[in-house]
UniProtKB/TrEMBL annotation:
Database matches in InterPro entries: Homeodomain-like_sf, HTH_RpiR, RpiR-like, RpiR-like_SIS, SIS_dom, SIS_dom_sf, WH-like_DNA-bd_sf
GO MF term list: carbohydrate derivative binding; DNA binding; DNA-binding transcription factor activity
Record protein name field: MurR/RpiR family transcriptional regulator
SUPFAM superfamilies in alphabetical order: Homeodomain-like, SIS domain
Species whose genome carries this gene: Paenirhodobacter populi
Domain HTH rpiR-type per the UniProt entry, residue ranges: 1-77
Domain SIS positions: 120-260
Pfam families: HTH_6 (PF01418), SIS (PF01380)
Keywords linked to the UniProt accession: DNA-binding, Transcription, Transcription regulation
Gene Ontology BP, a term: carbohydrate derivative metabolic process
Gene3D superfamilies reported for this sequence: Glucose-6-phosphate isomerase like protein, domain 1, Winged helix-like DNA-binding domain superfamily/Winged helix DNA-binding domain
Length: 287
């Protein structure tokens, strides 16, 4: 049962005790979670038996069960109950998105561990095979971008967002394999298990993730990215810009570590694009 949607639907009714109770709860969820049945009844201007009947009509066994489900709803995050929306016009939204992206890049630049970046780049350049792994919307995109950036530098690389397949590949990995994983939370148990399994085989792993997370603790080299997200649930995560910047820094360092190989592969890729698609060399570099 989606209690929030049930409460919202009930609160939207024009009249009735249930609508009054639902609006009272949604207006102050913190109070409703702590309130006794008498306290909630008094605030809503109804009787205690009305609260009990209300609890049952919205799908709960009674008031105690209603409070349990209300606490579970709040655990997901009160910001989803009353979202913060400070920008609504096109100009405001554009300003919000761009400034948050700029802030993410600025914060990443200030906190990035350059020594870890250098170690990761050397591991990638020396690898016989690179496995890039990510799960979830943003991390899957980062795994794909690692593939996109590294293959054109003459590296053998494969990306995956299937954690079961990645677990099997980790168990079958051989010497010369370097695995780089991306996770904004660093808590996915299967992804952590993949990294631990590779470590048990003595194979190096690189993690782009939060500091102190289980994934960070399991990886050989950690590139930590710790950024605040804010409360606007409608705005796409600005942290992903920091992850993309980390990928670009790594790719650039890998290219510079063996300029001859990188140059040769980049030239062949660009020559084919000019020959089969572009007709000249005026399009974007690197794509």
């Amino acid at each position: 049962m989606d209690l929030f949607q049930t409460l919202a639907n009930t609160a939207g009714k024009p009249e009735g005790l249930d609508a009054r109770l639902a609006r009272t709860v949604l207006d102050d969820v913190d109070f409703a979670m702590r309130a006794s049945i008498a306290e909630l009844a008094e605030r809503a201007g109804v009787s205690a038996p009305s609260v009990t009947r209300f609890s049952r009509r919205i799908g709960c066994a009674g008031y105690p069960d209603f409070k349990v489900k209300l606490a579970q709803m709040a655990y997901v995050g009160l910001r989803y109950l009353k979202p913060e929306v400070t920008s609504t016009t096109p100009a405001e939204v554009a300003e919000d998105i761009v400034t948050k992206a700029q802030d993410a890049l600025f914060r990443f630049h200030r906190q990035v561990d350059l020594a870890a970046m250098e170690r990761a780049a050397q591991l990638l350049r020396g690898a016989d095979f690179i496995q890039a792994v990510g799960a979830g919307g943003n991390s899957s995109m980062i795994a794909g971008e690692l593939h996109n950036r590294l293959f054109r530098l003459g590296l053998r690389v494969h990306s995956s967002n299937d954690l079961t397949m990645s677990l099997m590949q980790a168990s079958a990995a051989t010497e010369g394999t370097v695995t780089i994983v991306s996770s904004m939370t660093g808590i996915d148990a299967t992804l952590v298990r993949c990294v631990e399994l590779l470590g048990q085989q003595g194979l190096p792993t690189i993690a782009l993730t939060q500091s102190g997370s289980p994934l960070a603790k399991a990886a050989s080299v950690v590139i930590t990215i710790d950024l605040p997200e804010g409360q606007n649930i409608f705005r796409p995560s600005s942290t992903r810009f920091a992850y993309l910047a980390a990928v670009d820094v790594l790719a650039n360092l890998v290219a510079y570590a063996d300029r001859a190989t990188s140059l040769q592969t980049l030239r062949r890729v660009k020559a084919e694009l000019v020959r089969s698609r572009d007709g000249d060399d005026r399009q974007l570099l690197g794509d």
